[in-house]
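Weekly structure sync, notes
Attendees: PL (lead), two postdocs, one rotation student
Agenda item 3: pending single-chain targets
PL asked that the sequence for the first pending target be pasted directly into the notes so everyone works from the same version. It is reproduced below exactly as submitted, 674 residues in total.
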Amino acid sequence: MEGGDQSEEEPRERSQAGGMGTLWSQESTPEERLPVEGSRPWAVARRVLTAILILGLLLCFSVLLFYNFQNCGPRPCETSVCLDLRDHYLASGNTSVAPCTDFFSFACGRAKETNNSFQELATKNKNRLRRILEVQNSWHPGSGEEKAFQFYNSCMDTLAIEAAGTGPLRQVIEELGGWRISGKWTSLNFNRTLRLLMSQYGHFPFFRAYLGPHPASPHTPVIQIFREYLTYLNQLGTLLGGDPSKVQEHSSLSISITSRLFQFLRPLEQRRAQGKLFQMVTIDQLKEMAPAIDWLSCLQATFTPMSLSPSQSLVVHDVEYLKNMSQLVEEMLLKQRDFLQSHMILGLVVTLSPALDSQFQEARRKLSQKLRELTEQPPMAMKLFTAIRDALITRLRNLPWMNEETQNMAQDKVAQLQVEMGASEWALKPELARQEYNDIQLGSSFLQSVLSCVRSLRARIVQSFLQPHPQHRWKVSPWDVNAYYSVSDHVVVFPAGLLQPPFFHPGYPRAVNFGAAGSIMAHELLHIFYQLLLPGGCLACDNHALQEAHLCLKRHYAAFPLPSRTSFNDSLTFLENAADVGGLAIALQAYSKRLLRHHGETVLPSLDLSPQQIFFRSYAQVMCRKPSPQDSHDTHSPPHLRVHGPLSSTPAFARYFRCARGALLNPSSRCQLW
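Predicted structure, written out during the meeting:
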């Protein structure tokens, strides 16, 4: 009933209000003045409000996009290491050159003629090492550290070296029986002299013998014999007090001997084509082939404390050379014994000249100059390597010339690979480092100290091979700039000296590290599969597709113009060319994947290059060096080709630098081997 009463009162209230209709009509509320919902004015107002709302949202979205672009895109890296790298790039590059036609000049065009990216880095590393060695410290007497500092100080004591003059070297020559053109001389005992040169002085005048892994059993040591030739300088004999006319005669004949030895050499590609890269023989068999050398006594003295016998197996890399060399030695022993001794002594002097006074240093410098005229941070780095390795494994799964079995085998090899970065294990452990130097005795002269180091090093190498499970012994120093892959130990080594600016730094944009150090890492990883690319190296592969890829890559490199007086042997450089092209592709794949997963990339200020463009610029910067006539034994292409070959094989390069179709670095067709 209450509800009914209320419902009846409401009309009365409205009626009373309606009684004052004149007043309300003059002072109506804003709500009452709005159009009635559903009327035509209301529909128009709604459309206007909707349009204003949409325009406002679009404006806010545009502002948000602009803010994100400004604040979330690649930011310039303003740290000191980035600014130094920026300055280095600006100083070496020539941006007036079109990158699509000559990227080598674009990146390296203003570099000094003597610039070589690896040599510059090596020099910086040696300067760092020198500063460390020049700091005054007190070390435990007899420790390896003390010997290292004493050896350095002995080397830098040029006054003492100059005062000693030729005395230390004359003493060495007398121990060898003297030298006819410089004083006391006894009749040559050829094999005794050769044995002493090899075992006590580390000098191999006719061939090189070293301990290496057995081809069939990598962890079994075997003595390997290489052929070698040396170039000599007439001035050396004169410095030792010889009569200039006799020196000229002996030096000329020594050069003649060298020339004949050189003629005995067969090119590597010829021996490879004939399937004669090496031959397994015993010491007895080698004695029959090359009887002038007392192989057992010479090798036993060199590789003490190994116990050798006539049945000891050897790996000989060029048997024909050793046969011809032996005939030449026998001929010289019959007719010109003293000249043969001069040939060996001159070679020893060349080897030891860095430890002698300034006269010998100057002679060596002039020789090097003349020859040039005639031939014209490991943790972060390990993350980089892991990304490169993963990209390689992904790439192996998609190679058209590999069947599934070969792909699985290749992936397993990559997974089982050992990687060592920075320094070898013994160098990082003081107690092991001290043991390395226990047997070194620093002599009264710098030359004697050098010889002690030579003998100690050889003894350590022999001992390491005699261990039941020898660890990989580094072939380079930690401050070196050369990475390498060891086939026998299946280990890849990246020394600390390589992982330095301008190739790598944790504070660099990722594009720099992937483009420079990353491409080097990928290149070395591809060395694992060199055997697959050789004729008959992969019987389970699609050899037709593989051969097509071979020919395509050779044609691709042959089409590039080269600077004047520059040439290359495509048969000799093919494997390295393939590793250059594949290494760049793998590094780019790894970098692109990293960009997708990690934001916050930076760029180098003032270069006006995108991250991807910086990647390619950093790759080219690694190759900067003065073009020169190609060494006949160099397995790498000239620097122009090492830049243009891989870049033109990479479609992304043409895309990011907007190269016109048909430009030199954007060809109509490309090759894919890796």
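Discussion points:
- The chain is about 60% helix and 5% strand.
- The two ends are 94 Å apart (CA to CA).
Action: rotation student to compare against the earlier draft before next sync.
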